[in-house]
Queue: 2 jobs
Job 1
Amino acid sequence: MTMKRNIGDLAIFGGSSAFLQTLFVGRPNVGDRARFFDRVNWALDHQWLTNGGPLAREFEQRVAELAGVRYCVSTCNATTALQLLARAADLSGEIIMPSLTFPATAHAFRWLGLTPVFCDIDPTTGCMDPALVEAAITPRTSAIVPVHLWGRPCAVDQFAKVAAAHDVKLFYDAAHGLGCTSGGLPIGGFGQAEVFSFHATKVVNSFEGGAVVTDDEELAKRIRAIHNFGFAQGRVSTEAGINGKMTEAAAAMGLTSLDAFEETVCQNKANYDSYQSELAGLAGLKIVDFNPAERNNYHYLIVEIDAAVTGVHRDLLDDVLKSEKVMCQRYFSPGCHEMEPYRSEQPVTLPHTEQLAQKVLALPTGPTVSREDIRRVCDIVRFTLERGHEVTHRVNERVESMVTP
Ligand code: T4K
């Protein structure tokens, strides 16, 4: 790495990049490649490639165990899993959810003709605020769908009370929550059902994949039927289903990635500790932390940048890091309510969501990110934030010189 001694050494101002190879957020947890190929070969040898094959069933069993629930239905992705759940639960009208999430949470329901109603967050947790949810319930509300943002559990007890008091369904988008607990109980068992994502970028991946987990036998049966064209038994459909199945190749990856889950979490935790020590005491930067009394997967390393203190907006820090070949992600910015179609169709102001969405940045972590990578990333972050006003001023000067003839 080229040491940054003055701000002209930053790559954004023409210096050399700190990394030769790009560092990414969301590198897949692949696990033991040989084991993956063994599983795929086994499926090929047996010529059984999809439709609830043995690998998908094994994957479901292992996910159910991890989530502490009786039933798991694997799917082709989590977006479809949310839709299957909405159909199987006969949701209608309005669904209350956070805006500070990946757009899939909202789009999944919107695609079914349901109306996402965005609710503000508790700024201290980033998760939806149960008191505000209660105030947002109308006679058209059929469900509440909180998101365990970045794997940090929502206020599950309070949501359960609100849902029961108003007789609405409660489902969680647990796309980030595999292997995490709330009050010592695994995410997966809260509400009537929860949905995991096994996208390539998740802590356990099946290339693409998802699952609905639940203790409700009837709900699980209906989801299993709907995700296979509505075939409850045999080849006669009992309702209009869809194809939402997980393939055997995906399950082979999912199982292999699950084999490496504990190791991945250990590595994530070590990375989290490294970031904490490297960035300690840096004014205007906060690392989103995890409750040490719970089990966490430490999959997302999120920092909040307070531009009023640092003199650098999150977007500029992101640009600085990108120039150094550190590809961060602005998870989740802007909030869904500030994106189409929701922005035009149902304008709403969510002050806490909007403020936090301006601050958050996901930094690289995961098994492929080394201690040395983290040290280098943190050096750039510290260097930039400690000279925040100067860096911002220099960028603004450059922009002005480009627009002034
Ligand atoms: N609910 C929530 C709360 C979610 O966060 C998500 C998905 C869903 C529901 C829906 O789940 P799925 O239907 O996808 O199962 C990524 C993922 O595509 C998305 O699954 C995930 N959340 C979201 C948080 O992250 P992007 O748009 O950031 O993806 P992309 O392609 O830009 O990749 C992100 C980073 O990962 C890059 O740094 C590159 C790296 N990467 C990506 C892929 C695909 C790799 O290193 N290897 C890869 O194979 O959304």
Job 2
Amino acid sequence: MTYQHDYQRSLADPVGFWAEQARQVAWFRAPTQVLCERADGTHQWFADGRLNTSFLALDHQVEQGRGEQTALAYDSPVSGSQQRFSFRQLRNEVARLAGWMRALGVGKGDTVLLYLPMIPQAAMAMLACARLGAVHSVVFGGFAAHELAVRIDDAQPALILTASCGLEFDRVVAYKPLLDKALELARHRPRHIAVWQRPQLAASLVPGRDLDWQREVQDAQPAAPVELASGDPLYIMYTSGTTGRPKGIVRDNGGHAVALRFALDKVYGMAAGDVWWGISDVGWVVGHSLIVYGPLMAGCTSVFYEGKPVRTPDAGSYWRIIEQYRVNALFCAPTAMRAIRKEDPEGRLLSRHDLGSLRRLYLAGEKLDSSTHAWLESVTGKPVHDHWWQTETGWPVTAPCAHLDGSGARTGSSNRAVPGYAVRVMDEQGHVQAPGQQGDIVIALPLPPGCCQTLWRDHERYLQAYLAAYPGHYHTGDGGYLDEDGFVYIMGRTDDVINVAGHRLSTGEMEDVVALHPQVAECAVFGVRDEIKGQVPLALVVLKDGAPLETRQLQAELVARVREQIGALACFHRVRVVKRLPKTRSGKILRAVLRKLADGEAFAPPSTLDDPAILQEIAAVLAAG
Ligand code: COA
Ligand code: AMP
């Protein structure tokens, strides 16, 4: 099989191509309907197929003779623990947890919110929900109470599963008080809350409401996997959009299973028995696709890491893990490698470890700068691949396909479109751009299996956000260009989304928080370049006349508000007071111009700018630091 052949076929005959891929999945009932189009332009894959994702990830692997193989290898330098779960052990743990949830009344179609650190119980909880057909929504631990409350109100969970704490470099993060606060803010009341008590910190439980996870589940009866329709939702993953309200990306069971089987094999080159390491957190899409579901459904061992690239305890921990678990391939965000490079530029810590098992490294989540790319290839001596995808797609859009030959890499490109994705570049009028010309990156419909086809309880918003701008196409929100051979070059988001340390955040949401301060007349928040984190937010604020607070105090208050409302992960530390903001004559703030100004990039002041002198004033404020 070659890349060109498969790619062309996937677009010319999507039904035939994906019907063939679907045969790799152990359905309870194999689909006969491959692709249905709805009147609104969205699609349904494998409509009459019946399956269960937890069965595919666990029971099926045991049936295939992998019962004793390690499924999850938990390695936690922050807690000093390591634990291996075989497929059989994991299946048993998950079945018991699912049985307990079922006894609580949780069943198919109920939502369950997980606010959990990177402990194996997070993966178990996801798989237990999947077993029952309950829809999980994992909220990243770095989000503060307000963000959690927004997600609780949108997902309306019957049950919330949490842990007493998360562990950072330098501190224990108490999760339970954050959840308690979120529940005070939220309108929705879950029926139950269960808390996994970690030895580092005991959470206090509210009598009559909170349950002790360990105690409750130990004697539960196991639950068998429930047969589900392909289109039944597996999970909701909230992601930042351009407004303060996050989008609830919905993933189906059937399309997801087919897409991930395809991706693990053809894109990542993984086979059953291989060891895979998805370096992320279950709070992100990568954690769903590449820590839990993808590797397990492919029969791989998944390394489950609770730690950082540096300081847990040092910049050698990634290389230690690769050696210790004989990792064959990994996914990682460029930020992590930049952090390692900063502390160990010569690769001295790396040279103490045997990376012989490692075949290749995949990087995504944000732009991979060519300097980090070259450094990583030189210190590891392994191929390093940039690839591009989004929470919405759930699996790679562009990538080198390890098991389909003929897709060489090009510097600065996130590679060519993966089979199934018809990637195009268009201008605002919907004209396809010639090679080399920049524009909006879109994907012609139908999106391949696995991609999000609706937003939780808001289908209209899905249609507006993704399908309205370019009829017949999905609008990715990224800008860039293609070269004459189809290699894709991502230049960055064209909306108010930024990527901070590979974490997707909305500057619009930060603006909402800043603008609510009583002394702020108006503000603009945008992403500026950061040596390690890729981007960090910068706020320019205009004060109301006679604002009494001294600048330093105002800055501190705004930083505290964003941390309190959105979370520490926003890395919101930079606030500058300016007299005015540059706007078009119709009053639109020129954020793209501000970003270029702050990054020191060349730009021509737009003719729509009402007063060009404003830019000089702002440049002076930024230069003053
Ligand atoms: N729970 C609670 N707080 C969290 C958290 C979590 N799960 N994750 C991050 N935070 C907090 C951190 O403690 C930090 O708080 P602080 O401002 O009090 O120090 C803040 O959020 C920012 O965290 P982080 O972005 O991790 O910055 P850092 O300076 O602590 O670490 C790196 C820098 C480069 C090591 C880190 O950003 C990193 O590992 N990046 C890679 C991330 C990644 O793999 N992303 C892939 C997503 S697909
Ligand atoms: P998320 O939904 O959190 O996975 O973030 C998706 C966004 O991250 C994309 O829309 C891009 O803006 C960015 N992104 C992901 N991968 C890459 C990449 N390889 N190069 C540049 N940007 C990327």
